[in-house]
Amino acid sequence: MPNPKDDAFATRYGPAALVAGASEGIGAAFARQLAAAGLHLVLVARRASPLEQLADELRTAHGVEVRTLPCDLGEEAAAGAIVKACHGLDIGLLVYNAAASSVGRFLDTPVAAHLRSVHVNARGPVLLAHALGGPMARRGRGGIVLMSSLTAFQGTPFAASYGATKAFNLVLAEGLWSELKERGVDVLACCPGATLTPGYELATPPRAESRFAPKPQEPAEVAREALAALGRHPLVITGRGNRIASFAMRRLFSRRLAVVTMGKEMRKRYD
Ligand SMILES: NC(=O)c1ccc[n+]([C@@H]2O[C@H](COP(=O)([O-])OP(=O)(O)OC[C@H]3O[C@@H](n4cnc5c(N)ncnc54)[C@H](OP(=O)(O)O)[C@@H]3O)[C@@H](O)[C@H]2O)c1
């Protein structure tokens, strides 16, 4: 398994990587670690200014080529614009990190917000894995990381549609892991728990920290564990505490009890 600190990583997953949802949080951590591994980058997010700032930082720190594309991954046309922005670069690694979440009561949330999650979190990865996976398979090497979540493993009240899209990513990645392995393309579903990103901090009320919940991770730890697992496993649950909690929920609890337990936690936070 290539380690991002080895030349073998850049040989297997370079010369360029695309990070979809790159300007902050876990996506920015992926971008920093990939640039440090010597990969050129295409960075995508909606806001141009944080993308440009990160691009400048990475060009200066690592001397890699960084292209930026401000665009909304929820739009069907995004995949075409991204392929165009990648012209002349061999993209050997796709990290699909962006997500839209609608936390709250399902019926009190406009249906447009649920559909937005479906478009950004589920349609987006299918479009990009299809568009960029083809050239990888033809070259006989490459990697795809799809960001899932601990919410992928059972229904999550108050985040039902978001959780369903994360289950979609998990199952999509596992299927592609098996299917594309023989074409030389490694696929991974990355399932973090709570991670201290601007998005998480915005969505999580201060009263939400539970004494029983695993400690939130730093974005860099999540990215590091994902890149280390790529090529070794179809799925990684990041963080020891999350692995233990997830083991209990999946193997010791019935599925019904897991949903009820999630519901109690989510009610404390968001009801
Ligand atoms: N943080 C957590 O606790 C946690 C836990 C489990 C799983 N995850 C998963 O980990 C991934 C990253 O989460 P995160 O908390 O770092 O970040 P996030 O808030 O979901 O998004 C971070 C990045 O994605 C971009 N982005 C968001 N929506 C976009 C869109 N429609 N089009 C293009 N870019 C978009 C954002 O920039 P712009 O706003 O400028 O577009 C930003 O650069 C997500 O897939 C999430 O589901 C996170």
Topology:
Elements: H1 7-13, E1 16-20, H2 25-36, E2 40-45, H3 48-62, E3 66-70, H4 78-85, E4 91-96, H5 111-139, E5 142-147, H6 160-181, E6 185-191, H7 198-203, H8 219-229, E7 235-237, H9 240-252, H10 255-270
Parallel strand pairs: 1-2, 1-4, 2-3, 4-5, 5-6, 6-7
The structure holds NADP nicotinamide-adenine-dinucleotide phosphate (NAP).
Residues 21-27, 44-47, 72-74, 97-100, 120, 147, 149, 192, 194-195, 197, 199-200 line the site of NADP nicotinamide-adenine-dinucleotide phosphate (NAP).
Notes on the structure:
The longest helix has 29 residues, at 111-139. Helix content is 51%, strand content 14%. It is globular, with a radius of gyration of 18 Å. It has 271 residues and is of the alpha/beta class. The model has no long low-confidence stretch (mean pLDDT 94). The protein has ten helices and seven strands. A seven-stranded parallel sheet has the order 3-2-1-4-5-6-7, sandwiched between helices. The chain has helices spanning 7-13, 25-36, 48-62, 78-85, 111-139, 160-181, 198-203, 219-229, 240-252, 255-270; strands spanning 16-20, 40-45, 66-70, 91-96, 142-147, 185-191, 235-237. NADP nicotinamide-adenine-dinucleotide phosphate is lined by residues 21-27, 44-47, 72-74, 97-100, 120, 147, 149, 192, 194-195, 197, 199-200.
